[in-house]
Amino acid sequence: MKGRKPAIAAAGTFFGLFSYSQLYQNFLFSRITPSSERADEQEWVASSNSWVDRKVCTWFGFCGLSHLDESRWSNWGKETTDAKSRTSDYDDQHKIDLSEFWNSAHNARPEDWSDDEHVLREIPKYVTDHAPYIYLYSGEQFWPCDIAEHLIHTTPHLNYTPLQASSDHPNLTNLNDLNKWGRFVYLQSDDNVEDRPDWLGGETNIPSAPKGTDHLPGTSGDPASPDNDYLEDVAGEHAEWWNAGIGDTKDKGGVRSNTALTTATGPAPTEPPRKSKPSIHDEIWQPELLRRRTGRKVVGGRSDAPATLIVVEKGDGVVDAFWFFFYSYNLGNTVFNVRFGNHVGDWEHTVVRFHNGIPKAVFFSEHNFGEAYTWDAIEKIGKRPVGFSATGTHAMYATAGVHPYVLPGGILHDVTDRGPLWDPTLNMYAYTYDYQADRLRSSSLTPQAPVEWFYFQGRWGDKFYPLSDPRQYRFVGQYHYVTGPLGPRFKNLGRKQICQGNNECLLKKNRVSSRIDRIKRFPSLGEGEEMTEEDRLRFVGPE
């Protein structure tokens, strides 16, 4: 009998593995793998040089187990001549005034505009009067970035093949020319992102500590002080402003990566311990932190990374003001100390909806969806709403603290706090957008701002790395590195309700959400953003 036990155990193990393999291959794989990736699956798996890795990946869905060794991800200590050249190029780039790239629009002379054109390009004053403030995370390592600088450090690729020389970078006025190669073009980093090149972190774009308060008349020292200029709109979802316009599509924007932070209960730095760099903002922001503690006026700082404002009229007095924020890198969160969902390029946004010039609601983008709140529910500084950017992922929230999602117990969560306060109005480029005609116009506030970059159909970061890349692994459909995001054009700017998708949209009247309500909101994990079929047909056409 004793001799049979090992045989029974071995048979049981074999049967269990065989059953799971069949379940994964015949049922799970098709459900957890986006259709756009299934076509590349065979080639992606075959890229691995390890026979064992290929078989374990195909049979069980655990791909790149040997790639969990972080020491293989970086080129530290092995800097090549090319890498040194790139570092030199970066230093030289800092001598370039990036504003030159932003002042290159065609037909940019307001004196040449007709009266009707002036109206179409006007940004109402109430939009900037009620622009959001953004609290960035105090331990952030990947700060806001300028898309003009991002283009300097990336090269267009298609199917892991460069489309042009790495020295021939696209710019804001010709980026849309890449559309001739189709919608699968992507901007690949010229550097190994695991080496954490300076441009990727955007540390020079940390909002500057404010030196004065003249630009914020009437702000309150209490960051939670309400704006009493407007009466509460009790109608909420039943108000006439709730469903506005004709809508863009049924659901645009696709699926963004949903990845988790460490299981620690408190805020933690986003950078892995292997590379610890002193933060330059702790000291310069101490006077501002003291102002908050003593109840004095809170003032937002200016970032060298410009925000993008896109104003969309929906008719019947309804106007949506989209505030887009760009980061060159998204550091995914961790599950049991395994990180998922990193990607190059990251677009986040906040929307303020107005009705007849009066703010009614605010939407914060969070991973693949987001949360909508009544104007009265949102924390404000004076007349302006306050948002919080999560560490690493930059997901937007209405409160500071720990934000669990996907799994119970807070295993997956984002973290926000009151780090540097960013005032996007101090450095922005403003546009108006006709969502029915798909026409973006530079506004009268920034008439020189180019529009061509907006029409780029590709991805703003690397394509998910092949299995042969030591930086890549995938466990049950969830990647360490996912494909970079689509741009603002694909964020459902014509949405009827304020939420990103035109399906269910809950308008919250309280910033404090139940834990369960937040968790069930985000069902996916570690997946890249997908272009919807309606977007493809409308903007790209038949293929």
UniProtKB/TrEMBL annotation:
Superkingdom of this protein's organism: Eukaryota
InterPro entries, per the entry: Vps62
Location of region: Disordered: 195-231, 245-280
Biased composition (Low complexity): 259-268
UniProt cross-references to PANTHER family, sorted A to Z: PTHR48172, VACUOLAR PROTEIN SORTING PROTEIN 62 (PTHR48172:SF2)
Record-given protein name: Vacuolar protein sorting-associated protein 62
The species this protein was found in: Aaosphaeria arxii CBS 175.79
Lineage: Eukaryota, Fungi, Dikarya, Ascomycota, Pezizomycotina
